[in-house]
Amino acid sequence: MAATPVEVCVKAAAGAPDILGDCPFSQRVLLTLEEKKVPHEKKLINVENKPDWFLTISPEGKVPVFKCDDDKWVPDSDVITQIIEEKYPNPSFVTPQEFSSVGSKIFPSFVKFLKSKDPNDGSEQALLDELRALDEHLKAHGPYVNGENISAVDLSLAPKLFHLEIVLDHFKGWKIPENLTYVHAYMKDCFSLIHIYAG
């Protein structure tokens, strides 16, 4: 008997309610389900005009939300991916403790730089430092954060890098330096997954 698909609500694209949106947290949950080959049904939510049924299950209106076995809907991609890992342990995406925080400061650094109006406030350099640290890690341990196999930290980091690249190019004309070759190779590998699963 085929497994009943799990249900997950994720962000729809602005102006295109049938296409997955640019939410890195929604993409993280979908990538985790796809890479574990867990049958799932994604419900695309127009966050500009949230349907009443969605606000009933997610009163704060946040995506993603995931339906658990007890019919309870759970928010927060950290919590959701942990539930998925525990329920579907194979393949394991558990990242070793020493690598679990690799790249964790990139997204907050990106947000600070994006919002910055002062080119001398150090926010660009802080982002570059974080990206350079990731490049050094990948050079020593790659091609993924935990070596040869993809893990939870990649499935969290890749959608954020995807978002970072598009948004900073659009709003600031800023690109990740070409000399960060390991980061570029990593992004190319990971982004191919996002493009495959975004359909």
Automatic annotation (TrEMBL):
Pfam family, one: GST_N_2
Keyword Oxidoreductase in annotation: yes
Domain GST N-terminal residues, every copy: 13-92
Highest taxon in the source lineage: Eukaryota
InterPro entries the record matches: DHAR1/2/3/4, Glutathione-S-Trfase_C_sf, Glutathione_S-Trfase, Glutathione_S-Trfase_N, Thioredoxin-like_sf
Keyword list, A-Z: Detoxification, Oxidoreductase, Transferase
One Gene Ontology molecular-function label: glutathione dehydrogenase (ascorbate) activity
SUPFAM superfamilies tied to this protein: GST C-terminal domain-like, Thioredoxin-like
Any one Gene Ontology BP term: ascorbate glutathione cycle
The reaction(s) this protein catalyses: L-dehydroascorbate + 2 glutathione = glutathione disulfide + L-ascorbate; RX + glutathione = an S-substituted glutathione + a halide anion + H(+)
UniProt key word Phosphoprotein: no
Family of this protein: Belongs to the GST superfamily. DHAR family.
PANTHER family hit by this protein: GLUTATHIONE S-TRANSFERASE DHAR2-RELATED
Protein name: Probable glutathione S-transferase DHAR1, cytosolic isoform X2
Biological source species: Elaeis guineensis var. tenera (Oil palm)
